[in-house]
């Protein structure tokens, strides 16, 4: 299995009409050798799963509950998301950490809940602009990764995906440079290696997210520890998302 992967995070955007418009071009380019995961708002998951059905496209949710069932109004469990056709769920997106108060431990519990139910968690980590300016990137990333490692056993690590998303690069048009991102990705890989043993850690995809577009994807993908992208705004334009995916097909050494 290749450790490369490209994912689209629509955030709270889209409509039924947009699902029908955005999915067919992606379905026609998706290949098994490079997983392409579409994460629409939860209400569109059944529609997106149906549109993806006869293709290599995969479906992900944008969040998953940390609990399996119970009195948690508005939440959706990992098992429910599986029933809706999801193979993946994003957890710990900075818009949930900073906008909705999710803690490192909640994010780790969500990742563990996904793993209990056979969903692959795409675990987002990354520093804010203030932390970046204060030179705290390495410390923040280490704390966020270690919180996950405290709840996910080493043999499950290989079933996870990490996404480094510096908050200052999200939706700003100001992506990290390939070299900046590579340095952080290498440190994430080192933490995973320490925790999960060399071989398992080598197979965990570490994606980059933050202002990825067709114009910068190939230079990011050329870095040895950048295994793909978690794409926000550009994923709402079919031609952009197709071009980003094609940059992956052309740049990555795929199995
Ligand atoms: O948050 C992101 C993906 O999860 C990145 O968003 P943008 O690609 O819009 O910067």
Secondary-structure map:
Elements: E1 5-9, H1 16-29, E2 36-39, H2 45-52, E3 58-61, H3 78-83, E4 88-91, H4 94-97, H5 104-116, E5 120-125, H6 129-133, H7 137-149, H8 154-157, E6 161-164, H9 178-196, H10 198-202, E7 206-209, H11 214-221, E8 228-231, H12 238-251
Parallel strand pairs: 1-2, 1-8, 2-3, 3-4, 4-5, 5-6, 6-7, 7-8
Helix pairs in contact: 1-2, 1-12, 5-7, 7-9, 11-12
Bound molecules: 1,3-dihydroxyacetonephosphate (13P).
Pfam families: TIM
Keywords: Cytoplasm, Gluconeogenesis, Glycolysis, Isomerase
Binding site for substrate: 9-11, 171, 211, 232-233
Describe it.
Keywords: Cytoplasm, Gluconeogenesis, Glycolysis, Isomerase. The active site is at residues 93, 165. It is found in: Cytoplasm. It contains twelve helices and eight strands. It has helices at 16-29, 45-52, 78-83, 94-97, 104-116, 129-133, 137-149, 154-157, 178-196, 198-202, 214-221, 238-251, and strands at residues 5-9, 36-39, 58-61, 88-91, 120-125, 161-164, 206-209, 228-231. 46% of the residues are buried. It has an eight-stranded parallel beta barrel, surrounded by six helices. Helix 7 (137-149) runs parallel beside helix 9 (178-196) and helix 11 (214-221) runs parallel beside helix 12. The chain is α/β, with parallel strands linked by helices and 255 residues long. The N and C termini lie close together (7 Å). The radius of gyration is 17 Å and the shape is globular. Helix 11 (214-221) links the parallel strand 7 (206-209) and strand 8 (228-231).
């Amino acid at each position: 299995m290749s450790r490369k992967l490209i994912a689209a995070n629509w955030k709270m955007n889209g409509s039924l009409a947009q699902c029908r418009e955005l999915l067919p071009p992606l379905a026609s380019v998706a290949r098994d050798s490079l997983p392409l995961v579409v994460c629409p708002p939860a209400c569109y998951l059944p529609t997106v799963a149906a549109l993806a059905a006869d293709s290599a496209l995969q479906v992900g949710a944008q969040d998953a509950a940390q609990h399996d069932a119970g009195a948690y109004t508005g939440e959706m469990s990992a098992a429910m998301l599986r029933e809706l056709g999801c193979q993946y769920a994003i957890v710990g997106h900075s818009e949930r950490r900073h906008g909705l108060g999710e803690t490192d431990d909640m994010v780790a519990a969500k990742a563990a809940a996904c793993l209990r139910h056979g969903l692959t968690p795409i675990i987002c980590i990354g520093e804010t602009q203030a932390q970046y300016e204060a030179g705290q990137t390495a410390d923040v990333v280490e704390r966020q990764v270690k919180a996950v490692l405290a709840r996910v056993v080493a043999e499950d690590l290989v079933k996870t995906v990490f996404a480094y998303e510096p908050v200052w690069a999200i939706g700003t048009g100001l992506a990290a440079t390939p070299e900046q991102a590579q340095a952080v990705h290498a440190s994430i890989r080192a933490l995973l290696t320490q925790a999960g043993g060399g071989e398992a850690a080598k197979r965990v995809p570490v994606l980059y997210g933050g202002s990825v577009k067709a114009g910068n994807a190939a230079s990011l993908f050329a870095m040895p520890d950048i295994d793909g992208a978690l794409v926000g705004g550009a994923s709402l334009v079919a031609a952009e998302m197709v071009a980003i995916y094609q940059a992956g097909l052309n740049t990555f050494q795929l199995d």
